[in-house]
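Task: encode each sequence below as structure tokens.

Item 1
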Amino acid sequence: METLTQTIERQAETGVAKSKKANNFGGYLAGGALAGAFVGIGCLFMYAGVSGMYVHGSDLAGTMMGLVFGIGLVLVVFAGGELATSGMMIMPLAAIRRKISAVRAGWMIIFMLLGNLVGSIAISALITAAHVFKKDSLNYQMLDAVVSGKLGKDYSEVFFRAIMCNVMVCLAMWTIVRMKNEVAQIIVISWAITVFVAAGFEHVVANMTSFSLAIMNGVPGVTFTDSALALVVAAAGNIVGGMVVVGGSFVLAARMEA
């Protein structure tokens, strides 16, 4: 297995490749939109597949939500897409290794978030047009409860839940780079995602879809302003989780390998 230093170098090179791809603005925006849509598909599976358990208060609802939501990150990794939350670890590592500038790394994360938002809104519009969330359906009731719960949290709680969320996402992305077997990679992704969903942590890109669906389907009390503020706080927490907690920890650990 690779050393930590070798894995950091691989992650940094991935950051360089992403930076070069971003020179094609339209193509890279499309890649970000695909990732946002793939995560949105995970949200759709979660709401449509687990709504009965959730609404009726099953103790296993959280675990099942996580297990089905994992398809989103699996699609990002194996179908291809530019996901901001993993980029929050990868781009700073590229900057730390002096392969790109810190300013470039920051703009890349913003660029990914923009693409993810476009994809999240687009997939939400398609789902809404398909009438998946009909009023009084179990799917709608779950969407209402989940989004209302997210927007009812204090911003400090959202921030720390977002840190923990991206710790799990970035640990998954870090680990699969060190693995060869694709089935094992899918298992690791699924387990890591199950942890953050079951615990109720905050993923900015998943929230983009949840909030978009709530607004488009008329969930009471959900506004653009509240949704935007919650997304900004979640993004900040996700950045700390990916860049500082995961990326920073492995950079420090790599210095002790010698």
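Item 2
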Amino acid sequence: MSLFSYRSRNECELDREVDEFFATFFGGRRFGDYWSPDIDMSDNGKELTVHAELPGVRKEDISLDVQGNNLIISGESPIRKEVSESRTFFCERRFGNFKRNIPLPNDVDTSKINAAYKDGILEVKIEKREDTSPKKISIV
């Protein structure tokens, strides 16, 4: 008996859909027909940096938008092609449309955004405004 059992493509897709359905109720990041990429966000005082994992996605298939005070990363990852001679043991990668809405702090300057994509990681740098430091106001 093998450690792995043979799973048909339909069984793997059903397993993934069930997992994503329950993940939605317990903190998952799949909404409707979209999956959401994992991100890291950091602030060094001068700029905000967002790194998004988008493995296997071409740069041309990524859209980056700012709406109000939200950074929106969206696009589509390629659908895996079925190989009839292989047997699938695990189906964990995500395919299809993706979207991530990232609320931005008020002190960023959304007119000063730079983005780069390399090795499946999207890096977005957003400069912070200089005039957002707290100011002491004297009362007369």
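Check on item 2: The longest strand covers residues 108-118. The chain is about 10% helix and 40% strand.
End of task.
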